[in-house]
Amino acid sequence: MSDSGNWCLIESDPGVFTGIIKGIGVSGVQVEEIYSIDRDTLADLKPIHGLIFLFKYEGRGPESAGVGVSQAPIDYREDIFFAQQVINNACATQAILSILLNSQKIDLGEELTNFKTFVSDFPPELKGYAITNSEVIRIVHNSFARSDPFINDIQDPSAQDDDLFHFIAYTPINGNLYELDGLQEGPRNHGPCGEGEDAWLEKVGPIIQARMDQYASSGEIRFNLMAVVDDRLDVYEDKVLQYTVQLEELRENEGPDAGSWLVAELDNLTGDIRKEQEKRKKQQRENVLRKHNFVPMIYEILKGLAKENRLSALVEEGRERARADAEVVRQRRAAAGEAEEGSYYYFDDN
């Protein structure tokens, strides 16, 4: 696997991932961050098309993740889209594509549909190169990179390797639960999902939990879990229509006061729609700020302050605050050390 190439590093953020999905022409889905894999949490987001698991790992080879490497058998089939990761910074987008391109229920749009057809006969490694060489996918991916106006010519490779993160996708394919990890030789089959559209969620929960427990036992607790789900506004609006029809029919049969529970559900959905709209506005704003270069603005502000002879005083004020903050930290550490020492003396006296 090569280094970053001409792919930028992007944040593990649901707003970023949703923006990438929409940017490549996919409609009807979004990404939600989840903080628990219990049944109730997952039920609130159904239908879920796949899960993306982010974790820290050491090294670069296929088995370099060390602890937590899946033991499920590799099961590569032609009808499964699986691409090996050939470049570092593309892993987040590749995990997203692993879910999108293996779903029969997602509207991929023209660009991604053509891409899927084009690479259908490629082996996994060539599929990986096809992703990294796709100008459309790369441009959309890079459009969500943080603005970095400064170029650091002196880089410490060892420091970069300290915080390598990787993304793995979990998704149901043909009735089986698959783990799609671009650092592996092929997709890993965790076996039948069971009956029902969402039965795979019952199976994937313990698998991810066991993996997190393995990493936690080695001292690593930085994880991130996201779900590719149906567009929440579409889901809520469909429910509003469904409940409205039910309420009208119920009141026609039982009178104008019937269906109080449906009224309550409609009120809740109205609140959910408002929250989702507010969340999207916030994500859009964050995506704009994330990509914006603030250096010219900061430069002009500093230049204006200097012209007004206010910059030196503000710099000195900032230094004083920094010294005061450092002193507070020092005193707290000293107090904590004395308290710890006192506890030792208390222990020794007993």
Descriptive overview:
This protein has 350 residues and is of the alpha+beta class. The chain folds into three domains: 14-151 and 158-230, Ubiquitin C-terminal Hydrolase UCH-l3, CATH 3.40.532.10; 233-291; 297-349. Helices cover 52% and strands 13% of the residues. It is built from twelve helices and six strands. The protein has helices at residues 14-23, 39-43, 91-100, 109-118, 124-132, 135-142, 157-161, 199-217, 232-254, 260-291, 295-307, 311-349; strands at 29-34, 48-57, 164-173, 176-180, 188-192, 223-230. Strands 1-6-2-3-4-5 form a six-stranded antiparallel sheet, with helices on both faces. Strand 3 (164-173) and strand 4 form a beta hairpin. The relative contact order is 0.15. Residues 60-67, 152-162 and 343-350 have low confidence and may be disordered.
